[in-house]
Amino acid sequence: MRLSDAIEQFIKAMLTQDEHEVELKRNELAEYFNCAPSQINYVLATRFTPDHGYIIQSRRGGGGCIRIFRMEQDTGEQLLYMLKQRVGDAIDAVAASHLIVQLHERGLITQCEANLMQAALSPQALSLPLPVDIKDALRAKILKNLLLEVGRKTSAQ
């Protein structure tokens, strides 16, 4: 397991179902993982973003205190945000895959649904003799329809 993955898993383990926020000291975390504080910054900047369902507040000085909040799950608002901001008119395979993982982590889709979505949006599924921008636009249309179906499913429950 890569160091970035280990740091991410450590922080996520601290954010349990009952705990929606955690306060960490950047230097202490870096010391625990025997890495530079910049490695902690990298993990926070790439894996604990609003797109991933987290809000980070950082205080300078005193070792660099960091508060990480997990956003509350409001399915309708999250799906609307994903449709408008994350998908847009085109989305590449990597971004679509990250979005599907996020949906599963938030409990909005099952593992089976995530696997089906990944397969439907994979580069192999769209291996047509088309320009990349057309494939990304097609992937966005498919993903939007999948998200709308997820929204219908969750609102019916």
Secondary structure: elements and pairs:
Layout (H helix, E strand, L loop, with lengths): L2 H12 L6 E5 H7 L4 H11 L6 E6 L5 E6 L4 H13 L5 H13 L5 H11 L10 H25 L1
Antiparallel strand pairs: 1-3, 2-3
Provide an overview of this structure.
Helices cover 59% and strands 11% of the residues. The chain is mostly helical. A hairpin with a 5-residue loop joins β2 (54-59) and β3. The protein has a 3-stranded antiparallel sheet. α1 (3-14) packs across α3 (37-47) and α5 (93-105) packs antiparallel against α6. The chain has helices spanning 3-14, 26-32, 37-47, 75-87, 93-105, 111-121, 132-156; strands spanning 21-25, 54-59, 65-70. It contains 7 helices and 3 strands; from the N terminus they run αβααββαααα.
